Amino acid sequence: MDQRELMTLQHYLKEYGQQAEIFVSQLDMLENGRMEALAAIDALEGMVASEDGTVLLQIGGGASVRAKILEPEKILIAIGAEVVVERPNKEAVDYLKERVMEMEASQKKVAETLDRLRVQMNEINKRLESGYQQSMAEQDQD
After folding, report:
1. Of 16, 31, 21, which is closest to residue 116 (Cα–Cα)?
2. Which CATH code for domain 3-136?
3. Strand 83-88 vs strand 74-80: parallel, antiparallel, or unpaired?
């Protein structure tokens, strides 16, 4: 294996590493979105279960306030492209559950792609190791 081939393999390995970082970021974003949707589902179901309509509302920084929900059956849902629609509580929960399933399916696809990429990276690493060992053996013979 010559120097040019070793450099090409190093280049591919670097590019694959960058792609792997992107896929890991995508997985993180999907997981965060999934967790937010699950928390929203719990909150929506909790609003309906609350007898007096009082819930804890997180306002950031670890602070919460008790808030009385005036219309627990009217939920505003962002559906994308800055579009917000009003839906009954149950429809909003169903919509969020569908989104969770979509995110889980996307996570599975991204994870599979990441696994394939890691297999390719391992193969390149093996070839690089073999090339380096071959190069070192040739230098020892000279």
Report:
1. 16
2. 1.10.287.370
3. antiparallel
